[in-house]
Amino acid sequence: MNIVILGAGLMGRLLACQLARAGHTLELFDAGGSEALTSAARAAAAMLAPLAESAITETSVVQMGMYSLPRWPELIAQLDEPVFFQQIGTLVLWHRQDAAEAQRFARQMEATHAALPSLPKAQPLDGAGIAQLEPSLGSRFTQGLFLPGEGQLDNHQLLAAMLHQLQRLNVKLHWDSPRVPADFAPGQPGQPDWVFDCRGVGAQAQWPALRGVRGEIITLLAPEVKLSRPTRLIHPRYPIYIAPKGGDYFVVGATEIESDDLSEMSVRSTLELLSAAYSVDSGFAEARIMDLVTQCRPALPNNLPSIRMLGERVMQINGLYRHGYLIAPAMLDVVMELLQTHTSPLAQTFALAISPAKD
Question: Which end of the chain is more exposed for a tag (fewer CB within 10 A), N or C?
Answer without folding.
Answer: C
